[in-house]
Amino acid sequence: MGKRVALVLAGCGVFDGSEIHEASAVLVHLSRGGAEVKIFAPNIEQRDVVNHLKGSPAEEKRNVLVESARLARGNIQDLAELKASEFDAVIFPGGFGVAKNLCSWAVDGKNCTVNEHVNSTLQAFHSAKKPIGLCCISPVLAAKVFPGCEVTVGQDKNVDGRFPDAETASAIAELGCKHICKNVNESHVDKANKIVTTCAFMCKAPLHEIFDGIGTMVQEVLKLA
Description:
This protein is α/β, with parallel strands linked by helices. It has helices spanning 20-32, 64-71, 96-102, 105-108, 116-127, 139-145, 167-174, 207-224; strands spanning 4-8, 36-41, 50-51, 56-57, 77-78, 89-92, 132-135, 150-151, 178-179, 188-190, 195-198. A 7-stranded mixed beta sheet has the order 5-2-1-6-7-11-10. The protein has a two-stranded antiparallel ribbon with strand order 3-4. It has a two-stranded parallel ribbon with strand order 8-9. Strand 8 (150-151), helix 7 (167-174) and strand 9 (178-179) form a beta-alpha-beta unit. 52% of the residues are buried. The model has no long low-confidence stretch (mean pLDDT 97).
């Protein structure tokens, strides 16, 4: 029987929700790995709404669960209903929605707070020694919730201009965690905590390289499950 994996979304769209290509890549690799997937998102208002055509704020309100339902093709549940006992692993794609809706990293950096249901989900899987997969900016969730863990968001220096958000690695280190430098086609496995991370769009790279890197993360999560 395939592994049972929960996928947690943060909205729909790179600037105010889940990064669509990352979420899709995770789903494709989970499908290829024979996993049974259920999708969740918190039933909360988005921190903001961004007009993705203009790249500017929009004067409207949107709900994270309702917007995430676009990516889930309508088949989604409130994150409050997720029970770790019913799954073998959990995965969080990236996107600014992670840093805005699942936590307040976009505003508060390392001093951020984490949404209560996101925090309880992470704690439940960790306590049950079940793997947690994170990509792009979402490794900051683990860094905040699990001091001392190991994660990667790519490189800690802006190598060849490909890692414009390299300072995130320093903020992770300031939280007492260890940042591991990895290329876009690689992932890092924190074996002690069963946390698997990859940088995805934290690196300016061709889409297929990001897709392949996410694939290594998914594969490692399924191995640990």
